[in-house]
Design a protein that fits this description.
Blueprint: E1 8-11, H1 17-29, E2 34-35, H2 37-40, H3 47-57, E3 60-65, H4 67-71, H5 76-88, E4 101-102, H6 115-118, E5 123-124, H7 132-142, E6 156-162, H8 170-197, E7 223-226, E8 230-231, H9 239-253, E9 260-261, H10 264-267, H11 277-284, E10 288-297, E11 300-309
Parallel strand pairs: 1-2, 1-3, 3-4, 4-5, 7-9, 7-10, 8-10
Antiparallel strand pairs: 6-11, 10-11
Helix pairs in contact: 3-5, 8-9
């Protein structure tokens, strides 16, 4: 590595090596320095010392999250995650550093990851396949061009707001968060549109359906349902805010052109239920679900948002 101060560090479980390699190749093809242990470590290296040094000096830290990291409650990658978080303690909150990437359908609310990972927006790159939009975003972060989001495509975003401030009322806060999330959603939709155009179509199965079987309705790609946000506060006393945010988002999104948005009465039937996202998507007739949570901690309010595709 020629310039660790401008480099990206990839942290992953060994089972995700192929996905990590795909991501590494895409970044390097764009001229981005990447620390990838399979190519960087050499015989005789003091590997633990070298990894610690690279995490200390890198510009961005990309932890790869998957069902493999879920299954491994112990592993060296978790030490890497802790080292990266320790480094953030000396950073300003505005400095981008953590860029979590999910390479499968693991949901952020269920992931066994440090809380610091949830404070930034996640990127979903199935099997590590990396679109140009994500590569360009990493380039912007490396060039110190601060972005309102800390990832490029479908994932989570965290918006922190002091709850003790009297400058903003709850309705204004809801409106501000809704506008920010709607802007991110438009970005995600555009990115997924790119992915769908570059993903090989599956060959149709040559089987005739019975004449009496009705044709399944086509689900538009640009369709979304906003599920009721979950109140994850310790006292569970922010339900009015979580419900209000969901309703505000539905209202804002209905104004978006060419976007099918499910009404509140339909999406709120899943409040408090833990059903599979594909099942919910099929029942509501949408290709995407927008879900999230509200958490009050001390004098801070954290709102986490995730856009999930209902089909692959």
């Amino acid at each position: 590595m020629t310039n660790p101060g401008k480099a990206v560090f990839l942290s992953y479980a060994s089972q995700d090596a192929e996905a990590a390699q795909n991501l590494c190749n895409a970044l390097r093809a764009a001229g981005i320095e990447v620390w990838f242990d399979q190519s960087e470590l050499r015989g005789g290296d003091a590997w633990d010392h070298k990894i610690r040094r690279e995490i200390r000096d890198c510009a961005l830290f990309i932890p790869i999250v998957s069902h493999h990291t879920q299954e491994r409650l112990e592993g060296y990658f978790r030490r890497e995650w802790k080292l990266a978080i320790d480094r953030t303690l000396d950073m300003a909150e505005q400095k981008p550093f953590l860029v979590p990437v999910v390479v499968d359908g693991t949901r952020d609310q269920e992931a066994f990851v440090p809380d610091a990972f949830r404070a930034v927006q996640w990127t979903r790159l199935p099997a590590g396949e990396t679109p140009p939009a994500f590569v360009e975003h990493v380039q912007r972060l490396l060039s110190a061009e601060l972005s309102p989001f800390n990832s490029a495509s479908g994932g989570t975003s965290a918006i922190r707001e002091p709850i003790s401030s009297t400058r903003r009322s709850t309705p204004v806060l809801l409106a501000i968060v809704a506008v920010v999330v709607c802007g991110a959603l438009a970005y995600f939709m555009a990115d997924r549109s790119w992915l769908s155009k570059h993903t090989p179509a599956e060959k149709p199965v040559a089987a005739a359906a019975p004449a009496s079987t009705p044709a399944m309705p086509t689900i538009p790609e640009r369709s979304v349902a906003v599920l009721p946000f979950v109140d994850m506060s310790e006292k569970r006393d922010q339900e009015y805010l979580s419900d209000g945010l969901s309703e505000e988002l539905i209202d804002k999104l209905t104004n978006a052109a060419d976007l099918k948005v499910i009404a509140r009465t339909s999406s709120f039937q899943f409040k408090g239920k833990n059903e599979d996202i594909r099942t919910i998507g099929q029942r509501l007739g949408v290709a995407n679900l927008l879900e999230g949570s509200v958490r009050k901690s001390g004098n801070a309010l954290r709102i986490t948002v995730q856009l999930a595709a209902c089909r692959t």
